[in-house]
């Protein structure tokens, strides 16, 4: 179905898991044409670019994901998929945003 966001998202995310990054970008971009602010796709792109070692792109997608409601502190702080991103000094600001005003994970 050419209008099914989730089909493109899931295919792109699966390609990322398989290490087929070029194909993943194509499918995730198809999903973005349908819903450019969906945080599932944004975090999938952050994951993809982190795994490719493209930290700047990964950080930008991660920021957009958080801006659009993404809130999984444990994934951002602990997933090996985002290891390259965690070396960037901006990650602390992103992690702080994933906590509420009391310092607890939101």
List keywords for this structure.
mainly alpha; 106 residues
Notes on the protein architecture:
There is one protein chain. The termini are far apart. This protein is globular. The chain is mainly α. It is built from six helices and no strands. Helix 2 (21-34) runs antiparallel to helix 3. Helix content is 62%, strand content 0%.
Which helices and strands occur, and which strands form pairs?
Elements: H1 5-17, H2 21-34, H3 39-51, H4 55-67, H5 73-78, H6 91-97
Helix pairs in contact: 1-2, 1-3, 2-3, 3-4
How do you describe this structure in short?
This protein is 62% helix and 0% strand. It is mostly helical.
Specify the number of helices. Answer: 6
Tertiary shape: globular
- Helix-strand pattern: HHHHHH
Structural class: mainly alpha
Please tell me the overall pLDDT: 92
Give the total of beta strands: 0
Helix content: 55-70%
The stretches of 5 or more residues where confidence is low (pLDDT under 50) are none
CA-based gyration radius: 14 Å
The multimeric state of the shown protein is single chain
Task: Give the CA-CA distance, first to last residue.
Answer: 35 Å
